[in-house]
Design goal:
alpha/beta, Rossmann fold, Threonyl-tRNA Synthetase, Chain A, domain 2, 5-stranded parallel β-sheet, 4-stranded antiparallel β-sheet, binds magnesium ion
Length: 264
């Protein structure tokens, strides 16, 4: 029996699906088209599960969520509408112990979510207080602002890597995390759908805008690069690379609609 082909869309949120006001109105036509075609949409973000749940509900998604840069997987439970959460790799507490230990020992200048109240985070990120509280409910990663030189940053990266901790550049912040990344989250989502529909041949479309999306884009069949208005764009290598015509949500919508027109 011939297997049928289906597209699995895996997307970053900030600067990709969401615009700088955390809004996705301009993606509504493409989201509606995905729903009509019965194609899953998997959110794969540096955000926490608490931050992603409302968006997933607004979008009416039944798909797993990949949160905190692949450090957390949230699997939807049947009917109840809640998720089972799994932490992958190091937990945030272990990461903070090492990073803060190096800061007091070496005098590095950086500030992260663990140093801020919900009020301070709201001021730095443009999130509301409630959104900030959800964003502070982190289990596997630590976003932060580096306030020291590039050479000291590279020294810090070396010291962290000995402890199995990596530093990746996100849209607004740097992120400390264990060995997992968004590509692992994406691979998990693919496996989830392969088990759910074993006769389907899935083709993964991944969309992202930042360095922490590169591994996820390179693991996809079709990589969609969402441009930045300042021209600092990533260059992933994938079988097919598409450059969206506009930044953020508007580019996401245009790229998905054009790929769906090509495939369906
Ligand atoms: Mg992004």
């Amino acid at each position: 029996m011939a297997s049928k082909k289906k597209l699995l869309v895996v997307t970053d949120l900030d600067g990709t699906f969401l615009d700088h006001s955390y809004n996705w109105d301009e993606a509504k036509p493409a989201v509606a088209r995905l729903r009509e075609l019965g194609l899953p949409l998997v959110l794969n973000s540096s955000k926490t599960v608490a931050e992603m749940e409302d968006l997933a509900m607004e979008l009416g998604l039944q798909s797993p969520l990949v949160a905190e840069n692949g450090g957390l997987l949230a699997i939807p439970n049947d009917r109840t509408g809640d998720y089972s959460v799994q932490v992958k790799g190091l937990c945030r507490k272990e990461i903070l112990e090492v990073a803060h230990g190096l800061r007091s020992q070496m005098g590095y200048k950086f500030e992260g979510f663990a140093d801020w109240s919900d009020q301070e985070l709201a001021e730095r990120s443009g999130l509301s207080i409630i959104q900030s509280q959800r964003s502070l409910a982190r289990l596997a990663t630590e976003p932060f602002l580096w306030k020291d030189s590039e050479s000291l940053r590279l020294e810090f990266v070396d010291q962290l890597s000995i402890q199995g901790i990596r530093m990746l550049r996100g849209g607004r912040f740097w992120h400390l995390m264990g060995a997992f990344d968004k590509a692992d989250g994406s691979a998990f989502a693919l496996k989830y759908y392969q088990e759910l529909e074993p006769d389907t041949e899935w083709q993964v479309i991944a969309l992202g805008d930042s360095a922490n999306d590169t591994a996820m884009l390179e693991a996809a069949d079709i990589a969609v690069v969402i441009p930045h208005s300042d021209g600092a764009n990533i260059s992933p290598k994938a079988p097919i690379v598409v450059h969206a015509p506009f930044p953020a949500t508007k580019g996401w919508n245009a790229a998905i609609l054009s790929l769906l027109n090509e495939y369906y």
